[in-house]
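Protocol step 4 of 5: obtain the predicted structure for the target chain.
Materials: sequence only (see below). No template structures provided, no constraints applied. The aim of this step is simply to have a reference model before the mutagenesis design in step 5. Sequence pasted as it appears in the construct record:
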Amino acid sequence: MVAFLTAGSVQAATTEAAKAKAPPPAAQAAPAPAELTSREKAGCGAVLVILGKVATSYPQLFAQKGNDGRGAQFMLEAFGAKGRMMMDEAFEDGAEQGVKPTKVYEDGLGFLFESVKPEPGESNEAAGKRAAMALLQRCTGISTN
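Step 4 output (C-alpha cells):
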C-alpha cells in the first residue's frame, strides 16, 4: 500500500505542478470534504508520516528524477509534517475521551484496513490502486482527477 501511495503521491505532485502552469479551468468548485474523524486522522496521519519518512530516508529515490523528483520529495516531506499534526490531533481527541494512544492508533489502522478491502471481483492490485488514490484524496484533499 505504501508503494501505491508513494507512486500516487508522486503522480499527484507532478499533476499538481502541471496544473499550476496551465490556466485554471472554468469549472465549478468541488464541495469541501467533510472534516476528518479522529479515527481517520490517526490512520491518515500514520500513512502520511510513513510517506514523509520515505522521502527523508531515501533521497536517492528522488534524485534520479531531477527537479520533478525533488518536487515529489518535498511534497512527501510536507505530507509527513501534516501526518504528524493529524496524529497529534487524534491523540489529543482520544485523551479528551479517555482513550489511550495505542487504542487511537489501532482505530486509525482499522480505518486504513477497511479502506483497502477489495470489492467483490476486484483484484488485490486494483483494490490497492483504488484505495491508495481514495486515501490520498481523503487524507490530503488533493484530487487525482
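Step 4 remarks: Residues 66-96 form the longest helix (31 residues). The two ends are 20 Å apart (CA to CA).
Proceed to step 5.
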